[in-house]
Amino acid sequence: MRLPSTAQVQRFRARVTEVLGLQHDDSRLEMLGKLLMDRCAASGARDLETYLALMGTDDERRALARALTVGESYFFRVPAQMQAFAEVALAAALDASDGGSVRVLSAACAGGEEPYSLAITARERLPAEAARRVEVRAIDVNPAALERARRARYSAWAFRDVPDAQRARWFRQRGAEFELDPAIREAVTFDELNLAGDAPLPRDLDVIFCRNVLMYFAPDVMRRVVDRLTASLRPGGYLFLGASETLRGLSTAYELCHTHQTFYYRLRPDGAEPHAPPPTLTPSPTLPPLDATWVQAIQRGAERVRALTEQPTPRAERARPSPRSSLERALLLFREERFDEAMAALEGADHAQDPDALLARAALLTNMGRFDEADEACADLLALDDLSGGAHYLRALCREHRGDLEGAIREDELASHLDPRFALPAMHLGLLTQRRGDSARAARCFARAIDLLHDEEPERLLLFGGGFDRAALLAFCRARLHSLEAPR
Ligand SMILES: C[S@@+](CC[C@H](N)C(=O)[O-])C[C@H]1O[C@@H](n2cnc3c(N)ncnc32)[C@H](O)[C@@H]1O
Hints:
- The protein has three domains: about 5-70, no CATH class; about 80-265, Rossmann fold, CATH 3.40.50; about 295-485, Serine Threonine Protein Phosphatase 5, Tetratricopeptide repeat.
- The protein has 23 helices and ten strands.
- About 55% of the residues lie in helices and about 10% in strands.
- The N and C termini lie far apart (about 65 Å).
- A hairpin with a 2-residue loop joins strand 4 and strand 5 (about 175-180).
- It is an alpha/beta fold.
- The site of S-adenosylmethionine has 23 residues, from loops.
Protein backbone atom coordinates (compact mmCIF):
# COMPACT_ATOMS: atom_id res chain seq x y z
CA MET A 1 0.00 0.00 0.00
CA ARG A 2 1.17 3.54 -0.78
CA LEU A 3 1.90 5.92 2.09
CA PRO A 4 -1.54 6.91 3.45
CA SER A 5 -2.66 10.52 3.07
CA THR A 6 -3.37 12.69 6.13
CA ALA A 7 -7.10 12.37 5.42
CA GLN A 8 -6.81 8.59 5.39
CA VAL A 9 -4.89 8.55 8.67
CA GLN A 10 -7.55 10.79 10.18
CA ARG A 11 -10.25 8.34 9.12
CA PHE A 12 -8.24 5.53 10.68
CA ARG A 13 -7.93 7.58 13.87
CA ALA A 14 -11.70 8.11 13.98
CA ARG A 15 -12.30 4.37 13.49
CA VAL A 16 -9.86 3.59 16.33
CA THR A 17 -12.01 5.79 18.58
CA GLU A 18 -15.16 3.97 17.44
CA VAL A 19 -13.68 0.54 17.98
CA LEU A 20 -11.57 0.96 21.13
CA GLY A 21 -12.67 4.33 22.49
CA LEU A 22 -9.10 5.63 22.37
CA GLN A 23 -8.46 9.23 21.41
CA HIS A 24 -5.23 10.39 19.74
CA ASP A 25 -4.15 13.96 19.18
CA ASP A 26 -2.38 15.24 16.08
CA SER A 27 1.08 14.58 17.52
CA ARG A 28 0.28 10.85 17.14
CA LEU A 29 -0.74 10.99 13.47
CA GLU A 30 2.65 9.81 12.21
CA MET A 31 2.61 6.77 14.51
CA LEU A 32 -0.97 6.04 13.40
CA GLY A 33 0.05 6.32 9.72
CA LYS A 34 2.76 3.66 10.21
CA LEU A 35 0.41 1.42 12.13
CA LEU A 36 -2.22 1.78 9.40
CA MET A 37 0.27 0.62 6.78
CA ASP A 38 1.42 -2.32 8.93
CA ARG A 39 -2.11 -3.43 9.72
CA CYS A 40 -3.29 -3.16 6.11
CA ALA A 41 -0.38 -5.35 5.05
CA ALA A 42 -0.77 -7.87 7.89
CA SER A 43 -4.55 -8.19 7.44
CA GLY A 44 -4.30 -8.71 3.69
CA ALA A 45 -6.77 -5.86 3.01
CA ARG A 46 -6.44 -4.71 -0.59
CA ASP A 47 -7.23 -1.06 0.14
CA LEU A 48 -8.08 1.35 2.92
CA GLU A 49 -11.87 0.94 2.64
CA THR A 50 -11.57 -2.81 3.04
CA TYR A 51 -9.29 -2.36 6.02
CA LEU A 52 -11.53 0.22 7.76
CA ALA A 53 -14.42 -2.26 7.53
CA LEU A 54 -12.20 -5.05 8.89
CA MET A 55 -11.36 -3.04 12.00
CA GLY A 56 -14.64 -4.06 13.63
CA THR A 57 -13.73 -7.77 13.63
CA ASP A 58 -12.49 -9.45 16.83
CA ASP A 59 -9.09 -10.32 15.36
CA GLU A 60 -8.35 -6.85 14.12
CA ARG A 61 -9.60 -5.20 17.32
CA ARG A 62 -7.23 -7.44 19.27
CA ALA A 63 -4.31 -6.54 17.03
CA LEU A 64 -5.06 -2.85 17.45
CA ALA A 65 -5.46 -3.20 21.22
CA ARG A 66 -2.04 -4.84 21.40
CA ALA A 67 -0.52 -1.98 19.43
CA LEU A 68 -2.33 1.00 20.92
CA THR A 69 -3.04 0.45 24.61
CA VAL A 70 -0.77 1.52 27.45
CA GLY A 71 -0.44 -1.29 30.00
CA GLU A 72 1.56 0.52 32.68
CA SER A 73 0.64 -0.71 36.17
CA TYR A 74 2.16 -1.91 39.44
CA PHE A 75 1.14 -3.59 42.66
CA PHE A 76 -0.67 -1.57 45.34
CA ARG A 77 -0.77 1.54 43.18
CA VAL A 78 -2.07 4.34 45.44
CA PRO A 79 -1.96 2.42 48.75
CA ALA A 80 -4.44 4.86 50.30
CA GLN A 81 -7.08 3.65 47.83
CA MET A 82 -6.38 0.07 48.85
CA GLN A 83 -7.01 1.04 52.47
CA ALA A 84 -10.23 2.83 51.61
CA PHE A 85 -11.23 -0.19 49.51
CA ALA A 86 -10.84 -2.52 52.51
CA GLU A 87 -12.02 -0.30 55.33
CA VAL A 88 -14.88 1.53 53.63
CA ALA A 89 -16.02 -0.16 50.42
CA LEU A 90 -15.54 -3.82 51.36
CA ALA A 91 -16.69 -3.24 54.91
CA ALA A 92 -19.96 -1.69 53.66
CA ALA A 93 -20.50 -4.37 51.04
CA LEU A 94 -19.89 -7.20 53.52
CA ASP A 95 -22.30 -5.61 55.98
CA ALA A 96 -24.98 -5.40 53.31
CA SER A 97 -24.30 -8.84 51.82
CA ASP A 98 -26.14 -10.88 54.46
CA GLY A 99 -23.50 -13.60 54.32
CA GLY A 100 -23.45 -13.67 50.51
CA SER A 101 -20.65 -12.80 48.15
CA VAL A 102 -19.17 -9.37 47.50
CA ARG A 103 -18.36 -8.63 43.87
CA VAL A 104 -15.38 -6.53 42.83
CA LEU A 105 -14.36 -5.61 39.28
CA SER A 106 -11.00 -4.37 38.07
CA ALA A 107 -11.95 -2.73 34.76
CA ALA A 108 -8.87 -2.30 32.54
CA CYS A 109 -6.72 -4.59 34.67
CA ALA A 110 -3.56 -4.51 32.50
CA GLY A 111 -1.16 -7.33 33.55
CA GLY A 112 -3.16 -8.22 36.67
CA GLU A 113 -1.29 -6.05 39.17
CA GLU A 114 -4.47 -4.23 40.22
CA PRO A 115 -6.92 -7.15 40.66
CA TYR A 116 -4.29 -9.25 42.43
CA SER A 117 -3.57 -6.30 44.76
CA LEU A 118 -7.31 -6.16 45.53
CA ALA A 119 -7.46 -9.90 46.26
CA ILE A 120 -4.37 -9.66 48.48
CA THR A 121 -5.79 -6.63 50.29
CA ALA A 122 -8.99 -8.55 51.06
CA ARG A 123 -6.97 -11.43 52.50
CA GLU A 124 -4.64 -9.21 54.47
CA ARG A 125 -7.30 -7.04 56.01
CA LEU A 126 -10.37 -9.22 56.47
CA PRO A 127 -11.07 -12.28 58.61
CA ALA A 128 -10.59 -15.45 56.51
CA GLU A 129 -14.34 -16.15 56.30
CA ALA A 130 -15.11 -12.65 55.01
CA ALA A 131 -12.15 -12.68 52.58
CA ARG A 132 -13.47 -15.89 51.04
CA ARG A 133 -16.71 -14.12 50.17
CA VAL A 134 -14.89 -11.49 48.06
CA GLU A 135 -14.94 -12.34 44.34
CA VAL A 136 -12.55 -10.37 42.14
CA ARG A 137 -13.15 -10.22 38.40
CA ALA A 138 -10.89 -8.44 35.96
CA ILE A 139 -11.33 -7.33 32.36
CA ASP A 140 -9.15 -5.76 29.71
CA VAL A 141 -9.33 -5.31 25.95
CA ASN A 142 -5.71 -6.27 25.31
CA PRO A 143 -5.23 -10.05 25.05
CA ALA A 144 -1.47 -9.71 25.61
CA ALA A 145 -2.13 -7.99 28.95
CA LEU A 146 -4.51 -10.80 29.94
CA GLU A 147 -1.90 -13.43 29.04
CA ARG A 148 0.58 -11.68 31.34
CA ALA A 149 -2.06 -11.47 34.06
CA ARG A 150 -2.86 -15.18 33.90
CA ARG A 151 0.84 -16.05 33.95
CA ALA A 152 1.18 -14.04 37.19
CA ARG A 153 4.96 -13.61 37.12
CA TYR A 154 6.42 -10.15 37.56
CA SER A 155 9.72 -8.31 37.51
CA ALA A 156 10.92 -6.35 40.55
CA TRP A 157 9.68 -3.13 38.88
CA ALA A 158 6.06 -4.20 39.44
CA PHE A 159 6.75 -3.97 43.20
CA ARG A 160 8.25 -0.50 43.24
CA ASP A 161 5.74 0.69 45.84
CA VAL A 162 5.60 -2.54 47.88
CA PRO A 163 7.62 -3.33 51.01
CA ASP A 164 9.87 -6.42 50.58
CA ALA A 165 8.15 -8.24 53.44
CA GLN A 166 4.76 -7.90 51.78
CA ARG A 167 6.13 -9.08 48.47
CA ALA A 168 7.79 -12.06 50.17
CA ARG A 169 4.48 -13.03 51.76
CA TRP A 170 2.64 -13.44 48.48
CA PHE A 171 5.32 -14.09 45.83
CA ARG A 172 8.05 -16.65 45.41
CA GLN A 173 11.24 -15.60 43.61
CA ARG A 174 11.94 -17.53 40.38
CA GLY A 175 15.19 -16.25 38.88
CA ALA A 176 14.69 -12.57 38.10
CA GLU A 177 10.91 -12.87 38.44
CA PHE A 178 8.40 -13.17 41.26
CA GLU A 179 5.59 -15.73 41.00
CA LEU A 180 2.26 -15.12 42.69
CA ASP A 181 0.86 -17.46 45.34
CA PRO A 182 -1.59 -19.84 43.55
CA ALA A 183 -4.30 -19.12 46.14
CA ILE A 184 -4.42 -15.47 45.03
CA ARG A 185 -4.11 -16.40 41.40
CA GLU A 186 -7.15 -18.62 41.65
CA ALA A 187 -9.14 -15.93 43.44
CA VAL A 188 -9.24 -13.69 40.35
CA THR A 189 -10.99 -14.42 37.04
CA PHE A 190 -9.96 -12.65 33.85
CA ASP A 191 -12.01 -11.91 30.73
CA GLU A 192 -11.34 -10.09 27.52
CA LEU A 193 -13.84 -7.24 27.32
CA ASN A 194 -13.95 -3.91 25.56
CA LEU A 195 -15.22 -1.13 27.84
CA ALA A 196 -16.01 0.94 24.77
CA GLY A 197 -17.96 -1.87 23.08
CA ASP A 198 -21.46 -3.24 23.59
CA ALA A 199 -20.77 -6.61 25.24
CA PRO A 200 -22.37 -6.59 28.71
CA LEU A 201 -20.19 -5.92 31.73
CA PRO A 202 -20.52 -8.07 34.87
CA ARG A 203 -23.61 -7.02 36.89
CA ASP A 204 -24.47 -6.45 40.55
CA LEU A 205 -21.00 -5.24 41.46
CA ASP A 206 -20.19 -3.82 44.89
CA VAL A 207 -16.92 -2.16 43.98
CA ILE A 208 -15.33 -1.13 40.68
CA PHE A 209 -11.75 -0.07 40.17
CA CYS A 210 -11.50 1.68 36.80
CA ARG A 211 -8.21 3.50 37.07
CA ASN A 212 -6.05 5.16 34.47
CA VAL A 213 -8.06 4.19 31.43
CA LEU A 214 -10.84 6.81 31.11
CA MET A 215 -8.12 9.36 30.45
CA TYR A 216 -7.28 7.64 27.15
CA PHE A 217 -10.87 7.77 25.88
CA ALA A 218 -12.62 10.39 23.77
CA PRO A 219 -15.02 12.52 25.89
CA ASP A 220 -18.24 10.91 24.63
CA VAL A 221 -16.72 7.46 25.17
CA MET A 222 -15.79 8.41 28.76
CA ARG A 223 -19.43 9.28 29.41
CA ARG A 224 -20.71 6.08 27.82
CA VAL A 225 -18.21 3.94 29.74
CA VAL A 226 -19.11 5.64 33.04
CA ASP A 227 -22.81 4.99 32.26
CA ARG A 228 -22.02 1.32 31.61
CA LEU A 229 -20.11 1.05 34.88
CA THR A 230 -22.91 2.81 36.74
CA ALA A 231 -25.45 0.32 35.38
CA SER A 232 -23.23 -2.52 36.64
CA LEU A 233 -22.82 -1.16 40.13
CA ARG A 234 -25.25 -1.86 42.96
CA PRO A 235 -26.84 1.25 44.50
CA GLY A 236 -24.48 2.41 47.25
CA GLY A 237 -21.53 0.67 45.52
CA TYR A 238 -18.10 2.27 45.21
CA LEU A 239 -16.10 3.42 42.18
CA PHE A 240 -12.37 4.12 42.32
CA LEU A 241 -10.75 6.13 39.52
CA GLY A 242 -7.08 6.96 38.87
CA ALA A 243 -5.45 9.69 40.90
CA SER A 244 -5.76 12.26 38.11
CA GLU A 245 -9.24 11.23 36.95
CA THR A 246 -12.56 12.67 38.05
CA LEU A 247 -16.26 12.11 37.41
CA ARG A 248 -16.75 15.84 37.07
CA GLY A 249 -18.70 16.43 33.87
CA LEU A 250 -19.27 12.69 33.40
CA SER A 251 -21.93 11.72 35.92
CA THR A 252 -23.89 13.19 38.78
CA ALA A 253 -25.07 9.81 40.03
CA TYR A 254 -22.25 9.59 42.57
CA GLU A 255 -21.18 11.33 45.73
CA LEU A 256 -17.52 12.10 46.22
CA CYS A 257 -15.85 10.33 49.18
CA HIS A 258 -12.68 11.60 50.81
CA THR A 259 -11.10 9.34 53.43
CA HIS A 260 -7.60 7.94 53.99
CA GLN A 261 -6.26 11.03 52.17
CA THR A 262 -7.71 9.80 48.91
CA PHE A 263 -10.76 10.29 46.71
CA TYR A 264 -13.30 7.85 45.35
CA TYR A 265 -17.03 7.77 44.57
CA ARG A 266 -20.15 6.15 45.95
CA LEU A 267 -23.18 5.55 43.77
CA ARG A 268 -26.08 7.31 45.44
CA PRO A 269 -28.22 4.68 47.12
CA ASP A 270 -31.26 5.06 44.87
CA GLY A 271 -28.99 5.27 41.83
CA ALA A 272 -30.86 8.38 40.79
CA GLU A 273 -29.59 11.83 39.93
CA PRO A 274 -29.18 13.79 43.16
CA HIS A 275 -31.20 16.82 42.25
CA ALA A 276 -33.43 18.03 39.51
CA PRO A 277 -31.15 18.89 36.60
CA PRO A 278 -30.82 22.65 36.19
CA PRO A 279 -33.32 24.07 33.72
CA THR A 280 -31.89 24.65 30.28
CA LEU A 281 -32.89 28.20 29.65
CA THR A 282 -31.06 28.61 26.38
CA PRO A 283 -30.85 25.14 24.85
CA SER A 284 -27.68 24.74 22.87
CA PRO A 285 -27.63 22.55 19.78
CA THR A 286 -24.64 20.51 20.98
CA LEU A 287 -23.32 19.55 24.40
CA PRO A 288 -20.35 21.62 25.50
CA PRO A 289 -17.09 19.67 25.15
CA LEU A 290 -16.12 17.65 28.22
CA ASP A 291 -13.16 19.82 29.08
CA ALA A 292 -15.17 23.03 28.79
CA THR A 293 -15.88 24.69 32.09
CA TRP A 294 -19.09 26.49 32.67
CA VAL A 295 -17.26 29.79 32.24
CA GLN A 296 -16.40 28.87 28.66
CA ALA A 297 -20.06 28.25 28.06
CA ILE A 298 -20.79 31.59 29.65
CA GLN A 299 -18.15 33.27 27.54
CA ARG A 300 -19.89 31.93 24.48
CA GLY A 301 -23.10 33.22 26.02
CA ALA A 302 -21.52 36.60 26.60
CA GLU A 303 -20.55 36.75 22.97
CA ARG A 304 -24.15 35.97 22.05
CA VAL A 305 -25.34 38.74 24.34
CA ARG A 306 -22.92 41.16 22.81
CA ALA A 307 -24.25 40.22 19.39
CA LEU A 308 -27.82 40.56 20.62
CA THR A 309 -27.27 43.94 22.20
CA GLU A 310 -26.01 45.18 18.89
CA GLN A 311 -29.44 44.44 17.42
CA PRO A 312 -32.46 46.56 18.40
CA THR A 313 -34.63 44.65 20.90
CA PRO A 314 -38.40 45.16 21.18
CA ARG A 315 -39.25 47.15 24.33
CA ALA A 316 -41.43 44.38 25.83
CA GLU A 317 -38.58 41.87 25.64
CA ARG A 318 -36.12 44.35 27.09
CA ALA A 319 -38.34 44.84 30.10
CA ARG A 320 -38.02 41.25 31.34
CA PRO A 321 -34.50 39.88 30.81
CA SER A 322 -34.34 36.07 30.87
CA PRO A 323 -32.40 34.60 33.79
CA ARG A 324 -29.64 33.46 31.45
CA SER A 325 -29.16 36.85 29.85
CA SER A 326 -29.05 38.49 33.28
CA LEU A 327 -26.28 36.06 34.19
CA GLU A 328 -24.40 37.00 31.06
CA ARG A 329 -24.87 40.67 31.87
CA ALA A 330 -23.66 40.07 35.43
CA LEU A 331 -20.48 38.51 34.10
CA LEU A 332 -19.81 41.42 31.81
CA LEU A 333 -20.20 43.74 34.82
CA PHE A 334 -17.96 41.44 36.86
CA ARG A 335 -15.28 41.81 34.18
CA GLU A 336 -15.47 45.59 34.67
CA GLU A 337 -15.31 45.06 38.46
CA ARG A 338 -18.75 46.68 38.83
CA PHE A 339 -19.59 44.15 41.55
CA ASP A 340 -22.68 45.86 42.99
CA GLU A 341 -24.26 46.18 39.58
CA ALA A 342 -23.32 42.60 38.74
CA MET A 343 -25.01 41.45 41.94
CA ALA A 344 -28.09 43.52 41.14
CA ALA A 345 -28.22 41.92 37.68
CA LEU A 346 -28.15 38.46 39.27
CA GLU A 347 -30.74 39.32 41.87
CA GLY A 348 -33.16 40.53 39.22
CA ALA A 349 -33.85 37.01 37.97
CA ASP A 350 -34.67 33.65 39.48
CA HIS A 351 -31.43 31.68 39.48
CA ALA A 352 -32.19 29.32 42.33
CA GLN A 353 -31.67 26.23 40.15
CA ASP A 354 -28.90 27.48 37.90
CA PRO A 355 -25.44 26.25 39.02
CA ASP A 356 -23.66 28.79 36.78
CA ALA A 357 -25.49 31.68 38.39
CA LEU A 358 -24.99 30.33 41.90
CA LEU A 359 -21.26 30.04 41.27
CA ALA A 360 -21.10 33.56 39.82
CA ARG A 361 -22.97 34.85 42.86
CA ALA A 362 -20.62 33.04 45.26
CA ALA A 363 -17.57 34.40 43.38
CA LEU A 364 -19.01 37.92 43.46
CA LEU A 365 -19.72 37.73 47.18
CA THR A 366 -16.17 36.50 47.81
CA ASN A 367 -14.74 39.35 45.75
CA MET A 368 -16.84 41.78 47.76
CA GLY A 369 -15.55 40.28 51.03
CA ARG A 370 -19.04 39.04 52.02
CA PHE A 371 -17.68 35.64 53.07
CA ASP A 372 -20.61 34.38 55.15
CA GLU A 373 -23.02 34.95 52.31
CA ALA A 374 -20.50 33.47 49.87
CA ASP A 375 -20.31 30.36 52.04
CA GLU A 376 -24.10 30.04 51.95
CA ALA A 377 -24.12 30.50 48.18
CA CYS A 378 -21.52 27.72 47.90
CA ALA A 379 -23.67 25.46 50.06
CA ASP A 380 -26.68 26.14 47.77
CA LEU A 381 -24.57 25.32 44.74
CA LEU A 382 -23.10 22.15 46.26
CA ALA A 383 -26.60 20.96 47.08
CA LEU A 384 -27.26 21.09 43.33
CA ASP A 385 -23.84 19.99 42.12
CA ASP A 386 -21.53 18.56 44.76
CA LEU A 387 -18.74 18.02 42.23
CA SER A 388 -18.27 21.73 41.57
CA GLY A 389 -14.54 22.50 41.84
CA GLY A 390 -15.26 26.23 41.76
CA ALA A 391 -17.58 26.01 44.78
CA HIS A 392 -15.02 24.05 46.79
CA TYR A 393 -12.32 26.58 45.92
CA LEU A 394 -14.53 29.49 47.05
CA ARG A 395 -15.36 27.55 50.20
CA ALA A 396 -11.61 27.27 50.83
CA LEU A 397 -11.40 31.09 50.75
CA CYS A 398 -14.34 31.31 53.16
CA ARG A 399 -12.75 28.77 55.53
CA GLU A 400 -9.46 30.66 55.45
CA HIS A 401 -11.26 33.90 56.20
CA ARG A 402 -12.81 32.21 59.21
CA GLY A 403 -9.34 31.11 60.40
CA ASP A 404 -10.00 27.43 59.64
CA LEU A 405 -6.73 26.58 57.92
CA GLU A 406 -7.25 22.81 57.86
CA GLY A 407 -10.78 23.22 56.51
CA ALA A 408 -9.44 25.53 53.80
CA ILE A 409 -6.78 22.99 52.82
CA ARG A 410 -9.38 20.23 52.63
CA GLU A 411 -11.61 22.32 50.34
CA ASP A 412 -8.69 23.21 48.05
CA GLU A 413 -7.72 19.54 47.84
CA LEU A 414 -11.29 18.71 46.82
CA ALA A 415 -11.30 21.48 44.20
CA SER A 416 -7.96 20.28 42.77
CA HIS A 417 -9.13 16.71 42.69
CA LEU A 418 -12.39 17.56 40.96
CA ASP A 419 -10.70 19.79 38.44
CA PRO A 420 -7.03 18.85 38.10
CA ARG A 421 -6.38 21.74 35.69
CA PHE A 422 -7.72 24.42 38.02
CA ALA A 423 -4.72 26.62 38.92
CA LEU A 424 -6.17 28.73 41.74
CA PRO A 425 -6.65 25.99 44.34
CA ALA A 426 -3.06 24.84 43.69
CA MET A 427 -1.82 28.38 44.32
CA HIS A 428 -4.02 28.77 47.39
CA LEU A 429 -2.81 25.41 48.74
CA GLY A 430 0.74 26.72 48.31
CA LEU A 431 -0.09 29.75 50.45
CA LEU A 432 -1.89 27.73 53.11
CA THR A 433 0.74 25.00 53.41
CA GLN A 434 3.49 27.63 53.54
CA ARG A 435 1.63 29.26 56.43
CA ARG A 436 1.43 25.89 58.13
CA GLY A 437 5.23 25.60 57.79
CA ASP A 438 5.20 22.78 55.21
CA SER A 439 7.72 24.36 52.81
CA ALA A 440 8.30 21.28 50.67
CA ARG A 441 4.59 20.87 49.94
CA ALA A 442 4.15 24.61 49.43
CA ALA A 443 6.95 24.61 46.84
CA ARG A 444 5.31 21.71 44.99
CA CYS A 445 1.97 23.54 45.00
CA PHE A 446 3.45 26.76 43.63
CA ALA A 447 5.35 24.86 40.93
CA ARG A 448 2.11 23.13 39.96
CA ALA A 449 0.18 26.41 40.00
CA ILE A 450 2.77 27.95 37.66
CA ASP A 451 2.36 25.03 35.30
CA LEU A 452 -1.42 25.29 35.35
CA LEU A 453 -1.61 29.07 35.16
CA HIS A 454 -0.12 29.07 31.66
CA ASP A 455 -3.21 27.29 30.34
CA GLU A 456 -5.79 28.55 32.79
CA GLU A 457 -8.90 29.88 31.07
CA PRO A 458 -9.29 33.67 31.03
CA GLU A 459 -12.85 33.50 32.33
CA ARG A 460 -11.81 31.39 35.27
CA LEU A 461 -9.00 33.83 36.09
CA LEU A 462 -11.57 36.59 35.98
CA LEU A 463 -13.89 34.85 38.41
CA PHE A 464 -11.40 33.33 40.80
CA GLY A 465 -8.18 35.29 40.35
CA GLY A 466 -9.06 37.94 42.93
CA GLY A 467 -8.63 40.77 40.43
CA PHE A 468 -5.11 39.72 39.32
CA ASP A 469 -4.33 38.83 35.74
CA ARG A 470 -2.35 35.81 34.57
CA ALA A 471 1.00 37.62 34.51
CA ALA A 472 0.54 38.95 38.05
CA LEU A 473 -0.48 35.54 39.38
CA LEU A 474 2.48 33.89 37.66
CA ALA A 475 4.89 36.49 39.05
CA PHE A 476 3.40 36.02 42.50
CA CYS A 477 3.78 32.22 42.41
CA ARG A 478 7.32 32.43 41.02
CA ALA A 479 8.35 34.85 43.78
CA ARG A 480 6.89 32.53 46.43
CA LEU A 481 8.59 29.52 44.91
CA HIS A 482 11.88 31.41 44.73
CA SER A 483 11.63 32.42 48.39
CA LEU A 484 11.00 28.80 49.37
CA GLU A 485 13.89 27.49 47.32
CA ALA A 486 16.41 30.19 48.32
CA PRO A 487 18.98 29.03 50.89
CA ARG A 488 18.22 30.36 54.35
C1 LIG B 1 -2.60 2.28 32.19
S1 LIG B 1 -3.38 0.72 32.25
C2 LIG B 1 -4.21 0.82 33.80
C3 LIG B 1 -4.02 -0.41 34.62
C4 LIG B 1 -4.58 -0.35 36.02
N1 LIG B 1 -5.99 -0.08 36.00
C5 LIG B 1 -3.85 0.68 36.86
O1 LIG B 1 -4.39 1.74 37.12
O2 LIG B 1 -2.71 0.42 37.25
C6 LIG B 1 -4.67 0.94 31.05
C7 LIG B 1 -5.32 -0.37 30.64
O3 LIG B 1 -6.54 -0.05 29.97
C8 LIG B 1 -6.76 -1.02 29.00
N2 LIG B 1 -7.75 -0.53 28.01
C9 LIG B 1 -7.60 0.44 27.10
N3 LIG B 1 -8.71 0.58 26.36
C10 LIG B 1 -9.61 -0.31 26.84
C11 LIG B 1 -10.93 -0.66 26.48
N4 LIG B 1 -11.57 -0.04 25.48
N5 LIG B 1 -11.55 -1.62 27.19
C12 LIG B 1 -10.91 -2.27 28.21
N6 LIG B 1 -9.65 -2.00 28.56
C13 LIG B 1 -9.00 -1.02 27.90
C14 LIG B 1 -5.37 -1.22 28.41
O4 LIG B 1 -5.27 -2.43 27.68
C15 LIG B 1 -4.49 -1.18 29.65
O5 LIG B 1 -4.25 -2.46 30.15
